[in-house]
Every structure is written in C-alpha cells, then in structure tokens.
Amino acid sequence: MNTPGSVTILTAPSFPERNPRKRQPVPPARPATADELRDAFSRSPELTVGLEEELMLLDPETLDLVPRAGEVLERVAGDPAFKPEMPASQLEIVTPPRAKVAEAIGDLADGRARLLEAAGDLARPAAAGAHPFAAPQGELNPGERYARMVDAYGDVARRQLVCALQVHVAVGDADGTLPVYNALRGLLPEIAALAAAAPFHAGRDTGLASVRPTISQMLPRQGVPPPIPTWEAFADELRWGAEAGVVPEPRRWWWELRPNPAFGTLEVRVPDSQAALTDAAGVAAFVHALVGWLHERHAAGERLPVPETWRIEENGWSACRHGVEGTLADLDTGRRVPTRERLHELLYPLEPVAVRLGCAPELREARRLVEENGALGQRRVAADGGPHEVARWLCRRFAELGAPATGSG
Fold this sequence. Notes:
Elements: H1 34-43, E1 49-58, H2 69-75, E2 82-84, E3 90-94, H3 101-119, E4 124-126, H4 144-153, H5 155-158, E5 165-169, H6 174-184, H7 188-195, E6 200-201, E7 204-205, H8 212-216, H9 231-244, E8 257-260, E9 265-268, H10 277-299, H11 309-322, E10 327-329, E11 336-338, H12 339-357, H13 360-371, H14 374-398
C-alpha cells in the first residue's frame, strides 16, 4: 500500500554460492521515536485499504518456476505497480491506498493485466502460497540487499519460494491502532485458515492446508507477533533491533502482522497469495471488515482483548494443518469449534461493518472461501491431474480478470 519508487532492473543471473569477502554490516538507520510513530499512524486516512500481491513466474512449457523476474521487470520499467522480490522467479504487484476493497481489487486486476502482457512469451504468472512441484530451493535476484540475506541466512534464504497476499489497512488514529493491532493478533488463525492456498510442495501433497508458514518460519521474526502496549515500547523494540543489527530498518520486523511505519498501516501478512481475483477480494474484505469492526468497538469504549501468544499459535497450527476443515479453540475458554462454524459466526458481526465500508459484496466471497478455499480447490484439481495440472490451473485462474461483484452493499 504505497506509491513505490522506480523499479530496479535486474540483469545478473544469480548470486554465487559463496561471497568472496565478508560483507560489512549495514549501519542502522536512526529508529523512529514514539512521537514520530504516533504521527505516522495518525496521518493515514481512516480505514483505507491496499494490497501487495506476491506472485510466481512459471515456464510457459514446463510450468516450473523460471528465474526471469528481471527480464519481466525490464519490460515494465518505471511502472510503480511492480516490485522485485528476493527469489528470481517472483515479483510483486502493489496497489495504492483506496477507500474500498473493490477499488483495490480493480487496481490489482489492472496490474495482473499489464503483467500478463509484459510477461508475454517469457513466463506465465500465477499466484498461490507455494509452487506445487518446483524444487525447494531456487535462484535469488542479484543486488546487495539480497546478497546480505544470503550472508545472514544461507540456504534458508534460497528456500523462501513462497508468496503472500499482504493486506494493509490504516486505522487512521494512533491511539486506536495499537489496541486494534493487539486484538487482531488473536484473529490471525481465522484469516490464515480462510486464505490457506499451498497444500503442495516439491511435487507432493504435504498434508497441510498451507506449507508456507513452515518455510517462512525458518527465518526469524515469523508467526504471531508480540503484543505492543505503547508506542514507546514499539520504538524501544525497533531501537534494540537496530542496535543488535537484526532489524536495521522497520521492514525487517517480519511477523504475520505488523504496524508499518512507512505507510501508517496495519499490515496483515498471514494470507497466502490467492489464485483468482475473486478469492483475493474475499480475503481482503475479511481483513478490512475485521479491522473496521475492532476499530468501531474500541471507539465505542470497549476494552479490546490482548490474547496470549501461545494460545494464538495453537490455533495457528490448526489453520496451517487443516485450513477451514480443522477446529479452533476459544482464546478464553479453550472450547473447540469447527473452523467453518467459527468463521461463519465471525462473519455475521462483520456484515454491517462491511456495508459501512462498502465491501459487502466482496465479503460474500469470503463466505464462499469458507466452503472451498484455495487449498481445497488445488486438491480438487490435483485429484484428476496431479501437481502439474494444479500449476496449469493456477495460471488460468490468474488470467481470469473479470472483477468480482462490487458496490456499497
């Protein structure tokens, strides 16, 4: 959710296996103060939404991952909708902040259309949490930033062949942002279950609804984020990370959810990338309505919960393993209910919020995903054609550019 700068043009084929000399650490930027953070999270317009869609490039014939992101980006040089990613077979479509999910999905549709034209005969774009049969390690893009990732994490960096749909929502009020953030942590498993779309990896069914978290969590600062009681506490965490050299800049504060000081948004990073625009609309509307719901409750004077991290993680494992077909435990009582039942119950209070936000039609796509999300769709396709047919299906779904139903509800 930004207005990004110019696209870096990538030309080198890949990183060498070892760097000949140890790189000097990057001097950390001065961490933001608590007052600067408050200012950043007060400037964004209230409850705007933006998307970052990480996607894969597939060989037109074999449908394996193909490391041609640099060549594709050369063809769209200067278009701020496209950004490079660490893997050489991936790139990202970004949308500007919008008042409604339908507008953000419209931007995403335009980006997909331009990408399909630019990719041409070089590659076929597709979106999912992970490629269904590619090798577990891949080439990375060149550049100092990515070279430092290899220095720091070795082959773990080369294994990050995973794609997320990152949903940014601006609360628009610094005093309300942290209470909403702390409560939204407890709902990350519900979002993950709805958006799970990576059951296959390295040519086999993993038995998981999404293999992506098991790969991402090889890196530090993954999974459920810590609660943040005050902006002073967040400023202190960023200061410590900078001094330790592990978070030299706020974008290295990787978690499934984070306050993003660059944009003044809550950035929800837990959803897998979605094959079709209709699926992306459902996930985005679910997140938008959840933030709006929590924001309204806080504004009405309700004290929002700050759930225990380990309890959220237990539900997160069920979402990873079973997606919508599992069970989730109440974070207070521990009582377990089927995940589908929990999601349908949660969607009821979100419906009037979605009407006010103008995303009620897109929220109906979320109800559809409760019955068959991306993981179940991929398994249905694989039952007849295996992982290769899943890859072909993902390419077809990516190219379905008809926008979902839109309107104010």
